[in-house]
Amino acid sequence: MISVVIPTLNAEARLQACLEALGPVGAGNAVEEVIVADGGSTDRTLDIAAARGARIVTAPAGRGGQLAAGADVARGGWFLFLHADTALDARWAADATAHMAKAGDRAAVFTLAFDAAAPAARFVSFGAMLRTRIFRLPYGDQGLLISRRLYEDIGGYRTMPLFEDVDIIRRLVAARGRGAFRILPAAATTSAERYERLGYARCVLRNAALLARYLAGAAPETLAKAYR
Asked: Is 32's pLDDT higher than 90?
């Protein structure tokens, strides 16, 4: 039913939890296959992926290109694009299966959470969900569940170093309107490491500034340098 595509680059610290949270893989399960699209890892990322039975494809580093490379070899009728530092909660498969049964041409994203108990983490996830509901602009760390047909209709992921998630969502909404995707209740819990290392306020302001520049027409290549 679902081909899960996970882009990786030296993701050994989080990949195991991401893969385990998906549950059983294979016939009779929600997940038909897991594809790890690797951008040149030099740590244990590929060993972890192989041990969990994932198919491995390689692509030049850059999340957009890696996601596209994974989708190119996927066999499922539905795709789930998921970051390597994100773990879905136990109800995700039930939510996804129910959505696919009645979705038609609607995609879906999950409800964002962070793996940190700090009030700031809850505030950031709350703000992200407001952005998702009001502006119809989820980020990639919320996952993207989309049928193969719809993915291909809107042109799939583009090879870009940043905001590949915003790009595909904007094309999705432009093609199908504000109802183009549904927000599923299951939590997508992502790493708060970057926020804790750089500071929550600093990360939020930086991300907002980069998004504003992107929406105003700045080149993703230029923005990626600032992001790093």
From this structure: yes
DSSP E strand stretches across the chain: 2-8, 31-38, 55-58, 78-81, 86-88, 107-114, 144-147, 181-190
Specify if 201 maps to a domain.
no
| Residue 14 resides in a domain | yes
Q: What is the pLDDT of residue 28?
A: 84
Q: Are 191 and 115 a contacting pair, CB within 8 Å?
A: yes
Interval 101-123: pLDDT, tens: 997 789 999 999 999 999 999 99
Domains of the chain: total? 1
Which residues fall within 8 angstroms of residue 222, CB to CB, at 6 or more apart? Answer: none
d(CA 63, CA 75): 20
| Helices vs. strands in the chain: H and E counts, helices first | 10, 8
Q: Determine the structural domain holding residue 166 and report its residue range.
A: 2-196
The reply to whether 215 falls in a domain is no
Q: How many Å apart are CA 208 and CA 202, to the nearest integer?
A: 10
Among 104, 126, 85, smallest CA distance to 181 is for: 104
> Is the confidence at residue 178, as pLDDT, over 80?
yes
